[in-house]
Amino acid sequence: MKPLDQHRHNDVLGLRWISDFGWLRAAELGALMFPGVHAHKQAERLVRGWVHRGLILERKLPERAGRALVLAARGVQLLAEVGIAAHSGKDIGETMNGSWQPPRTWKHDLLATQVLVTLRRRGFGILPEPVLRRSTEPLTKMPDGLAIKGTQVVWLEVESARKTGPAMRLMAEALSAVAAGQAETVCGHRPTHAMVAYLAQAQDERGYTLSHRARVRQAVAAITRSDMPLTFACCTRQGAAGIGGIEFIREKVTTDRTSAILKRLDAGGWHRDAASQVSMAHYAGYTAYVWQDPDAPGAWSYQAEAANWFAPAGYADSLGEAKQSAASLIAAKILGGVVT
After folding, report:
1. pLDDT tens, residue by residue, 18-28
2. C-alpha–C-alpha distance, residues 45 and 50, integer Å
3. pLDDT, tens digit, 9 for 90 and up, residues 107-157
4. What distance in Å separates the CA atoms of residue 111 and residue 199, rounded to the nearest whole number?
5. How do residues 32-54 score in pLDDT, each as one tens digit?
6. Is the pLDDT of residue 339 over 50?
7. pTM of the model
8. Confidence of residue 203 (pLDDT cuts 50, 70, 90)
């Protein structure tokens, strides 16, 4: 590509990323545009040129978090020349007494951006929330972004505040619907995996440490109709607003009903048949079975049945997991949920 063509390509690519996210910092812009350790510096050089040419506006973020880059009218015009519809970012945030103030959600938005950027560097295509809002019908709950790789479509939620009541319930319902394969289509993609991102060192408005992971798990367990997989993106803070690293943790959230059934199965006792070496326990007309696979040492099997119904056997890595999985089969049958 000729230097002039490369210059134009970088203009369009970078300005489009700013349009897609609404606003970006140079750090995240560089990670989206360039490989390697010098991506941030390369982005800063681009940004200086865009500011000089009037393509973007810079806004100072609070707490020494850097500068937010938004599209100026000339940047909108440049994108329009190549057939990309965009809007000026001059109205993002508000100016009070001559000082610009970012949107109240700026920390939440920045965390969502950083997680999506990390997923893109891992081979996912990404759709930020502003793109989703412009491109789809209004939804009961809008994700904070989608990440797509092959048949995997990740619904991203960012938990950066102490959600309570209806807000937490709405998020839990959305995550449960995704895991059950019942989520609404978003921009032509049906979400298949649920992910919740949070800051490991988060504190609430009173200065107390927040356990986002525990609170989300508890809310989902109370809502979901069957045990479900959920991925947590645990983010560690670096500096004022940077992310030092993200640990992706995949868990299986057990429904409250599964926990209650397992407690009853354990209380009634598991009885082993001497001939078959299968242990069984009973709950309200249902029977749960667990046994060790003789052909695979260390592997356990589980099954559940009732009159005119039985669930196919499954495999687990431990006796405790097998018992919980058998209880999950019963809970899913009672609630009419999807066994996962």
Report:
1. 999 999 999 99
2. 9
3. 999 999 999 999 999 999 999 999 999 987 778 889 999 999 999 999 999
4. 8
5. 999 888 999 999 999 999 999 99
6. no
7. 0.83
8. low
What's the CA gap between 265 and 143, in Å, rounded? 38
Q: How far apart are CA 77 and CA 55, in angstroms?
A: 9
91 burial level (CB within 10 Å; 0-12, 13-18, 19+): exposed
Give the SS3 label for residue 236: strand
Could you read off the pLDDT of 236-286 as tens digits, one per residue? 887 767 788 899 999 999 999 999 999 999 999 999 999 899 999 999 999
Helix (H) or strand (E) segment spanning residue 185: none
Comparing CA positions, the residue from 227, 232, 236 lying closest to residue 215 is 232
> Angle at CA 331, nearest 5°, toward 286 and 275?
40
- At 326, the amino acid letter reads A
Report d(CA 39, CA 35) in Å as an integer: 6
Q: Angle at CA 133, nearest 5°, toward 132 and 138?
A: 110
List, by residue range, all CATH 3.40.1350 domains of the chain: 106-253
Phi, psi of 327 (to 5 degrees): -65, -35
Q: How far from 285 is each of 15, 261, 264, 277, 314, CA to CA, in Å?
A: 63, 12, 12, 22, 21
State the distance between the two ends of the chain, measured CA to CA, in whole angstroms: 49
Range(s) within the chain of domains with CATH label 1.10.10.10:
3-101
CATH tag, 3-101: 1.10.10.10
**Does 206 score more than 60 pLDDT?**
no
Domain 106-253 has CATH 3.40.1350: yes
Query: Two tokens at 170?
Result: 């709405």
